[in-house]
Amino acid sequence: PASLQLLAWGLAWGVRRARVLLEEGRFADARVVESTKVQNQHGSAYRLRYEFTTLSGAKVTATAELGRPAAAPGETMQIVYHRDNPRWNKIYPLSLVTPDKR
Q1: Where are the alpha helices (DSSP H) in 1-102?
Q2: How far apart, in whole angstroms, are the C-alpha atoms of residue 31 and residue 34?
Q3: Which of 11, 40, 45, 69 has the maximum number of C-beta atoms within 10 A of its C-beta?
Q4: Closest Cα to residue 44, out of 63, 62, 68?
């Protein structure tokens, strides 16, 4: 029971974090700098290194691991970053939360 409760807490924390990022975040175009295939504990993944410019003009470099190739170096993609902490960013669309289409 404790392990299931811990798993549920982890999923809830991930959904809440993604929701806050969508509610308080800003969108930006990111340019892919590097895309490499890497081996991890669950098999292979693709590690992307990308950079984007915030609304204040600061340049931020970030990495993400994806299960599929998303973009080649030089291509652009959408990301969302937190307005107070641009190092907190994710590739859009997010996997756990999507915007409400009303």
Answers
A1: 2-24
A2: 9
A3: 45
A4: 68
